[in-house]
Amino acid sequence: MKQALLIISFLFFLITAHGQSSSAWASGNVIAQDGMSTKTDLKIYPNPATDYIEFNNVDASVGEVIVYNVVGKLMMKLSAFEGKNRYDITELPKGMYLIQMLDPKSSVITTKRINKR
Q1: DSSP H or E stretch at residue 44
Q2: Within the chain, which residues score under 50 in pLDDT?
Q3: Is pTM beyond 0.85 here?
């Protein structure tokens, strides 16, 4: 009887935990450590890019933009500030890159993939 109750409790915990994590991702919000939610529906365009990339929704919550190649090598570090949403990427060689946006406390807001041509 104790084992059955333990198994049911464990399954309930798994279902509850999975439901909470998937609902946070499905809504497009990530709960920050300070309790505030941060939008992750940032879009990067054009994709594929040639000379520059732009972000549709850069606000004060984005502190830094970091560009990695697909192997994980740091390629560029760009300072972000409110109002600036266009970044020059002409010095990057052709290929695929991961663009990571960090908040002012260096926590990851979102990571997007782009293609440089």
Answers
A1: strand 44-45
A2: 17-39
A3: no
